[in-house]
Amino acid sequence: MDIPSLSIDGIREALLARHFSASELAAEALRFAQTENPRTNAYLHFCPERAIEAARRVDERIARGEDPGPLAGVPVAVKDVIVTQGVRTTCGSKLLEHYIPPYDATAVVRLEQAGAVLLGKTNCDEFAMGSSNENSAFGPVRNPLALDRVPGGSSGGSAAAVAQGTAVAALGSDTGGSIRQPASFCGVVGVTPTYGRVSRYGLTAFASSLDHIGPLARSVKECATVLQVIAGRDGRDSTSAAAPVPNYAAQLDGNVKGLKLGLPREYLKDLTSETGGLFQGGVQALRQLGCQVREISLPATDYAVACYYILATAEASSNLARYDGVRYTSRSASSETLADMYRNTRGEGFGAECKRRIMLGTYVLSAGYYDAYYLKAQKVRALIARDFANAFQEVDAIVAPVSPYPAFRLGEKVDDPVAMYLSDIYTITGDLAGIPCMSVPCGTTAEGLPVGMQILTRHFDETTMFRLADAFERHQRR
Q: How many Å apart are CA 278 and CA 433, to the nearest integer?
């Protein structure tokens, strides 16, 4: 079996034709992933017993003549901020180094019900806070396409596993671009669905009003298939939506002629020449497919970075207060009083980026600054959402770059937090508005580094987003 070449459809066909069993595939996929992982550090830990048991269930379904599920036997990976029963979930932090959850996230339950085989948990920035995957307490992830480069963050481990071929698909989480930016840097497809489309039950909270779970895979169709499996209302998450989930993959016919696309001028002014050239090439390809492209304006974009880093850090400050050494976290051993235990546990357990965001969030929520910062940022968020609503009255979708530049070198921006934050400049607006958005590869630089194109659509209109991305992907493969 050539594991990196496998696809969801190919695996299903091979299983039904008895070319190999799900158990044989799981064993080989685990062996391959464990052998390859030292190159990238994409996985933090594997769960072979769980994988073999899931594969056995698929084989039993096939033996009984039952439908084994849309993801039958597919080796998948899950970002380590998504809890898994009986499998260590660290969130990339020393605080949770030994934490084993007593339950599964809804998205994980739905993956396995569809026949997926969970190989392991992927490395990530600590508590999903970062843009390069260098903030993990367990070492950075390396980009499999250029080992001296970052894979993007915070879902860099999931993106790297898919790009490396050690998982056919993976789940990541996106708060300000943490699925789309790694997808762009690693040359894979990454999807951030509408807020509420996928249950957040079991997703460790960073910024609750911004967090999404979404898929990464090597093709648009595979992402569409995985999203259909994990999407839908969940009674355990009050923010999950009851909107019907279409059969996304069935509507990928390659025909996007007549679609009206918007190019936001605010996104194009700061592009580097090579990234900008590749993006413009992608836009030209969409024109060749029959799309009508026009320039639009999203005027509140200039305030998006400041708005995001006020709101996200404020919510992080609140959500991370629970990690105090009293309940399920590691506890400092060098404390004589309760106050010392709190202080030492958090001081020793949190990394520099988490501490930075906690302090900033606590500051903007404090009595003297709440109105000046947090409340004002909420008003700006409403303006950003209104910009998108107005734009979608004129166009069917918006296309934009994912990042101002391709994957940068390890250590290049780690000492400059502002420069790191600005790498999210094109992705955070979609999260602030809660709309579906995705990254699809649109070319490579002279150094062979991939660059992604971002597609954004109306709330719950993932169908148009997938149709456009699929047509573009087919054009790129010609």
A: 26
